[in-house]
Amino acid sequence: MKRCPRCGVAKPPADFYRNKGWKDGYHPYCKVCLLAYQAERWRTFGVRKTARRWASTGDIRHDYFARIDTPTKAYLLGLLAADGTVSSRAEWNHIGLEVQMRDRALIELVNHEIAPDVQARARDRNGKSYCIITFSSARLKQDLCRHGVVPRKTQFLTWPQDLPIGLEWAYVLGYFDGDGSFTLDPRGERTYPHWCVLGTVGFLTSVKLAVFRHTGIQCREPLPRIGCYLLAKSGAGARVIDAWMHQHPNLGLDRKRLSLMEIAFRR
């Protein structure tokens, strides 16, 4: 027999749902209490189950990506292109973003710009803490797909066709903060930077063309990696790309800003 802490009644294991997350292999609430608890939670917090995940039905700016006309919109589009998820089921409009807890400022930006009433949540996985935000919007999903952020984008991501040329730096910065990195190679008192981003070969070719169009820096062709491709640049060219991406002082992760990385390195 197992006692449900919600109703206080001892019941046989068959009256509890199996759940490997608990020591005895069963959820602590009995089936009746668990279903009642979930219904109460939906009524209280205004959430519903969408795409087998929790998605909020609160205030969402459904037309946010109708036009990419500000640096912040271009940045968030790039970020979702790198780390976002879009439901592959036609009847589901689930959109989500999950980042490590140290980068929770990205979730806060999505919260503020797109889904003000949606509550982000935290979870631990493989010994690391993550911050997650999920919401549901048919219009947002449609516009994201139109801009190249499609389901299973790991294989099918493409460069947005109607992205203004003047905002390409913000889009690349958002993508870089999701799927890019800077590393520093110490050489005496100086450092030698390496810049790279991961993605599909077609998408990275578009990134390469955008970088050359605005900076004159020529990167080599994307190199194959396990399950993806890599676009990279080192040395002085990496510094030029960093300066081009970080045109706005308030956009971008500080930990991926080359100038701040070098200051921290010298300390």
Topology, please?
Elements lengths: L1 E2 L6 E2 L4 E3 L7 E5 H15 L1 E4 L2 E4 L14 H13 E3 L7 E7 L3 H10 L7 E5 L2 E9 L1 H9 L6 H4 L11 H12 E8 L2 E10 L1 H15 L7 E3 L2 E7 L1 H10 L12 H9 L1
Antiparallel strand pairs: 1-2, 3-4, 5-6, 7-8, 8-10, 9-10, 11-12, 12-14, 13-14
Helix pairs in contact: 2-6
Textual characterization of the structure:
By secondary structure, the chain is an alpha+beta fold. It folds into three domains: 2-45, no CATH class; 71-146, Homing endonucleases (Endonuclease I-creI, Roll), CATH 3.10.28.10; 177-266, Endonuclease I-creI, CATH 3.10.28. It has nine helices and 14 strands. The protein has helices spanning 31-45, 71-83, 104-113, 138-146, 153-156, 168-179, 201-215, 236-245, 258-266, and strands at residues 2-3, 10-11, 16-18, 26-30, 47-50, 53-56, 84-86, 94-100, 121-125, 128-136, 180-187, 190-199, 223-225, 228-234. A hairpin with a 7-residue loop joins strand 3 (16-18) and strand 4 (26-30). The longest helix has 15 residues, at 31-45. The protein is elongated, with a radius of gyration of 22 Å. Residues 47-57 have low confidence and may be disordered.
